[in-house]
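Is 5-O-phosphono-beta-D-ribofuranose placement plausible here? Inputs below.
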Amino acid sequence: MVGIIMGSDSDFPVMEEASNILKQFNIDHEILVSSAHRSPARTRNYVKKAEKNGIKILIAGAGAAAHLAGTIAAESVLPVIGVPLDSSPHKGLDALLSTSQMPGGVPVATMGIGKSGAKNAGLLAVQILALEDGKLHSKLLQYKKYQTKEVEIKSRKVQTAHARNNKD
Ligand code: RP5
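Reply from A.M.:
I modeled the complex. Tokens:
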């Protein structure tokens, strides 16, 4: 259902966050290392076959002069979610601009830099799939509810620690 492509194996520890979310929602997905610059033919071949292979959404994570999401979007009409990664001296800003600043006609839904971006890419993919899947939609509502509950739990922990520290 979802293809996660990353420019290098060094991107995996961050891009794994997208996979973790998809696992949480039981969404079939596959992971692939392929680079826009180092293996353009491999990237193109994968994208050209993706739709036929049942892929509905592509997530692309890359760092530095990151053209992966853009080149994928150039070759496909599937929704492409881009994740800029922090893997150069510019700390991801280079990848953010390369991924987000697409010319008109070739959209890439660009997330934030790094792990939170990868996590949100997974969630956005789930949200797109949930448009036509009632069960998935309900799961997303539960996820949001739990997330809100977690804030209260974290707040209570902080308040308890604060009260304890100020007792003495
Ligand atoms: C990009 O270059 C990759 O997406 C990665 O973030 C970065 C560095 O790759 P490696 O030199 O670690 O393979 O294309």
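Short version: The beta strands are 2-6, 29-33, 57-63, 80-85, 109-110.
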